[in-house]
Write a structure and sequence with these properties.
It is a single chain. The chain is an alpha+beta fold. It has 5 domains: 65 residues, no CATH class; 222 residues, no CATH class; 105 residues, no CATH class; 73 residues, no CATH class; 71 residues, no CATH class. The protein is built from 11 helices and 27 strands. A hairpin with a 5-residue loop joins strand 25 and strand 26. Helix 2 runs parallel beside helix 6 and helix 4 packs antiparallel against helix 6. The longest helix has 57 residues. The protein is elongated.
């Protein structure tokens, strides 16, 4: 009975262990990487009783995993292949949304730009249309920049994702090396703890989600892991040693990344990564992100080049040949990010053609007419550069050319005026006493200015080849300030001193694009800022339309105001036929505005302390009761402050404290 009881008790103990294993399987049914375990039983050694061999019961031989190496390897390969598609699909959809979206894509911005161009072509002289076109041009440039910024964000995200993947690969490799170290304590894989083997396989599966791995197992279960084409190439883990992986980015080709194995030992490039999320990220950056950025930059360069070509064929509002409408900042990383509108003055938009060819009523063919000419230049080139490239029209002081003269160098060449130029105006700002402009031919004939006869020293410094004169040229003032039609007129040229405005004639075209008549507009002579003065104007000093004007009395207090000048001119309208108006305005470039500072206008506080935008500044100024001014954003993007109706000619005081000297423009 004791033998039966011993065998039975032993069997109960064994099957208790088997049931414990079953319970462990049930408890870990949702555990990632856990393999179902089985209890292997074997009979205890038999005992011999006389001539009979009797069994002595059962024992637990080992607990083994339900593991199939072929299935596990295919699972790792499948995980790698699936993981390589996820970043390609998700990030490619991001790029599609960026480039093709209605709000972010280029189509809507380009449509508005070309629509503004068509509208401007129908009314080339319209200041409103010019401002609208300039805004849409700036909108296209900004849209290119926004798209480039969005691609930069995708580039940054994928780069961070790659760096994170590389960091996790290094951590998994280090953990595998530690597991291998634990596995070396046993000589046989069957003797290894199942949980330790599960940990090894789980690490391999996680590693395969980042990159395809090749594995080789030793009899005791330690694993050798390779990232190359074979298990012996680009070994990542071998025994207790794990190599490090690092991602390098080429500044000249940032969309391409190179993975380096053992970067701080014997570095070598990893070229065998064909699947896994890391391979998907690399493929996306090279095939989608890189090609998209190159296409966007190519489109930006083509758009700028072709638009500038068309724009430079026209005439701007000043009558000069059109300049480049767009430019690309050479400091920008990408062409799309560097597109900028080349100017802010809407008058520099070349909305008029240099010439116009229309079909004649007697020419029913579809022939197109073109005109070309050869621009001849002096050889060798002498003197200052051409006036069209030297003096740039613009409303800002940055557009002018500074000419410095002194007692030692009393003359300076300004620019070369080509033969045939008409309607040329040059403004000399704040001239010194005795300073003036002179126009001369290359052979020394002075046409405009004050005679220099008898001033040999001045002529000696002036008439040199460096100033554009022909060698051996001699000075003559025979044609100086000649009157058209007289013997002193040089090539019929007339000289007029003063300000002049002519009636504007706009052609009217019929259905056949022929000129059927003209529409006249009143002559408008618009002045600029009037400098402060405490004096008046003597009688007969100024002549307006051939009529000598009466005296303008000096102010009794303060300085002469523009309103007083306008009243003086309007008092003589009956004999001059001219009326005058005066306005006061302040124009500020957005870059000149410092937000967050105290602001007073006409000693009325403007609540602009929390304002950070130009639109907010306009709203704050218009909300200040009692300042008698109104603000808006002008067509050229400047902040424009003017007087309200009834206060157009009043001074405008802009300051950071009450009682400050006014800043005013009339």
């Amino acid at each position: 009975m004791s033998d039966m009881a011993g065998i039975a008790g032993n069997a109960v103990s064994v099957y208790q262990q088997a049931l414990t294993t079953v319970s462990n399987n049930i408890a870990n049914v949702a555990t990632d990487g856990y393999s179902r375990q089985d209890v292997k039983l074997s009979a205890l050694p038999v005992t011999q009783t006389g001539g009979v061999f009797l069994g002595s019961g059962v024992m637990v031989d080992r607990v083994q995993r339900q593991y199939n190496e072929f299935v596990e390897r295919n699972l790792r390969n499948t995980v790698s292949d699936l993981a390589s598609q996820e970043p390609m699909v998700s990030y490619a959809n991001r790029v599609v949304d960026i480039m093709g979206g209605q709000s972010m894509g280029l189509s809507s911005a380009l449509d508005r730009f070309f629509e503004a161009a068509r509208s401007l072509s129908s009314d080339a002289s319209s200041a409103v249309m010019r401002g609208s076109f300039l805004r849409e041009a700036d909108g296209v440039a900004a849209r290119f920049g926004q798209l480039s910024s969005q691609l930069d964000l995708v580039d940054l995200e994928t780069r961070q994702s790659m760096d994170s993947s590389v960091t996790q690969i290094n951590e998994l490799a280090a953990n595998l090396a530690l597991v291998n170290k634990q596995l070396t304590k046993q000589k046989s894989q069957d003797a290894q703890p199942p949980d330790l083997m599960d940990q090894r396989d789980l690490l391999l599966k996680k590693l395969s989600s980042f990159a395809h791995v090749n594995t080789a197992f030793s009899p005791n279960g330690t694993v050798t892991v390779s990232l190359g084409a074979t298990v012996n190439e680009d070994v990542l883990v071998q025994g207790n040693t794990a190599m490090m992986v690092k991602a390098n980015y080429d500044p000249k080709a940032p969309d391409k990344a190179v993975l380096v194995l053992d970067p701080y030992g014997q570095p070598r490039s990893l070229s065998g990564i064909t699947s896994g999320s890391l391979a998907g990220l690399m493929s996306f950056r090279e095939q989608v992100l890189g090609s998209t950025r190159n296409a966007l930059d190519g489109l930006a360069q083509t758009f700028v080049r072709e638009t500038n070509t068309v724009h430079q064929q026209g005439i701007d509002g000043y009558g000069n040949p059109g300049q480049a409408l767009f430019k690309i900042d050479p400091k920008a990383t990408n062409a799309a990010a560097g597109i900028q509108v080349n100017f802010t003055d809407s008058m520099r938009i070349a909305s008029a053609a240099q010439f116009r060819v229309v079909k004649g009523a007697t020419n029913p063919s579809d022939s197109s007419a073109t005109v070309s000419y050869l621009d001849t230049t002096l050889a060798p080139k002498r003197g200052p550069a051409d006036i069209t490239t030297t003096l740039v029209n613009g409303a800002y002081t940055s557009a002018v050319k500074n000419i410095n003269v002194s007692l030692s160098v009393p003359v300076a060449g300004v620019a070369t005026v080509a033969n045939g130029m008409t309607d040329l105006s040059v403004y000399l700002n704040a001239p010194q006493a005795g300073q003036q402009l002179a126009v001369m031919t290359r052979d020394g004939r002075q046409l405009i200015g004050k005679s220099m006869t008898g001033n040999a020293a001045l002529l000696g410094q002036l008439m040199t080849t460096d100033n554009g004169f022909a060698a051996g040229a001699g000075y003559s003032d025979a044609y100086l300030n000649g009157v058209s039609g007289s013997s002193t007129s040089y090539k019929g040229m007339s000289v007029f001193y003063g300000a002049q405005a002519t009636v504007q004639m706009q052609p009217i075209y019929d259905a056949k694009e022929q000129i059927s008549g003209y529409k006249s507009y009143p002559a408008l002579l618009q002045g600029d800022r009037i400098q402060a003065s405490t004096g008046g104007v003597a009688a007969n000093t100024l002549v307006l339309n051939g009529v000598a004007l009466d005296a303008l009395a000096a102010p009794t207090t303060g300085t002469l105001q523009p309103a007083s000048v306008a009243a003086w001119l309007n008092g003589q309208t009956a004999k001059t036929g001219v009326t005058a108006t005066v306005s006061n305005e302040i124009r500020l470039d957005p870059g000149q505005i410092k937000y967050g500072l105290p602001l007073y206008i006409n000693n009325i506080q403007v609540d602009a302390s929390q304002t950070t935008t130009l639109a907010g500044m306009v709203a704050a100024i218009n909300g200040a009761t009692g300042s008698e001014v109104t603000a808006r954003v002008a067509a050229d993007g400047q902040l424009l402050i003017t007087g309200t109706p009834g206060h157009e000619a009043d001074d405008i005081i802009v300051s950071s404290a009450m009682g400050t000297t006014p800043r005013k423009m009339h």
